[in-house]
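Field reference: sequence -> structure
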Amino acid sequence: MPRRDKVKPSHAMSGIHTNARNRHATAGRRAVRGYSEVPSASLLSAMDQTANPCTDFFQFACGMWNKKHVIPEDRASINTFEVMADQLQNILRGLLEEDVSPNEGSATAKAKIFYAACMNTSQIEEIGDAPLEKVLASLGGWPVTSLNWTAPGFSVETLIGRLRGELNQGILIDQWVGPDDKNSSVNVIQVRPCPCHSIFRHYTPDLHDSLIHKEALPLHLTVSDF
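Structure field:
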């Protein structure tokens, strides 16, 4: 009489787990293959496979890319990073131009509102520079825009601190909190000259070296220095 033995529960569960692992592995390989096909297709489309690589390898590797990407009139050159940046800008613009959804996060909603305000040129022209004048007045005014300007009753250090704390702007010096170079597990206050010093160096290299490199650089302040 034929006999059919029952499969032990442990063996059955083992088979289920094995099948699940196989399905996940297959799906993972398909996902990776699909993801890798995108850059692969991009590289293949950039190649001029009609060219002989032994004669002109550059034409073989990049011939079609050069044909498809013409240097814009407002640029001196173009490369793959700039093309990707332009594509990203277009994607971001499309996202920012969408209506604010009640289900999206506050950061995304604020970004869309800010973008819409920046693109509202008619409102900007109507308001003019009134918001900027208001900010300048709150910071003590500016001799260029105020005929009867007088120096405010606070120090320049206070002004620099307010610019960083209220407007997140680094003037003269740029300061921020970041990981310590010697111990990345600790955050420290870091200070460096603002980016405008590179322009100053370009036009006055000798004066820049004598005033900044010898006296102010490098300038790294940690919490223990205060």
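Note: Strands lie at 173-179, 187-193.
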